[in-house]
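TL;DR need structure tokens for one chain.
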Amino acid sequence: MTSPPSCTEQDFKLPHLRRCAFDFSRIVWERKLGGGLDGYVWKVWFGETGPFSLNVPPDFRHYYAAQRECQNASIFQMIETAIAQAAVDSKPIRVLANPKTKQEARYNLFWFSDEARLASFPEDLEAAEITSMPRFRKCYGWLKFSGEIRRSISWSKEYTAIVYEYVEEGENEEAVVEEVDRFCWLTGFSHNLSPAARNWKSRVLVDLADIIHARGYGWHEVTYKQWTADLILVE
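>> reply
TL;DR here they are.
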């Protein structure tokens, strides 16, 4: 995963996170950061490069955390690419300024696609311009490994992990959290039903399963709105 992602409308409809380019044979396990029903997280290095966060979502059949994280990470990569291309073209991306429904959420997401670059946003609709993207934790893709290499997980299983940048613990500035939340709303993401302060570190959303993209399983219109920090950073 070394080149910009494809950003067609179809890519947004069926988002696929690309495979991590790091050599797993060079992994160095520094320490375990967490584990339990929410999966496992390790602080790792690949050779001398890092540190990174290696996230292994739970593998319950009814739980879609891994799929949601991969799809959300893929969509943010495409959105970032689209915003950068729009800056080169000097044509800011415009979206509905006050989306409320699933149809409107998907409509907003469409405007980040390659097809949208050939179209013009309707002048009779109230628009918000997207010219930049708040900070999101960088994702380096997915990889697979056998549980045989770690005693704390089942040795007989193969696991899918997602590699992220490692984010240090730090305070969550409410204004920044709300800015990120507004961006997610304008780009079609709804909240899940159990927001938590532990999903944020140093004003960065570190658990991408905390939100649901416009075509994702579990997207809810009732939670598709801007939230204040006190509703997001629940202790």
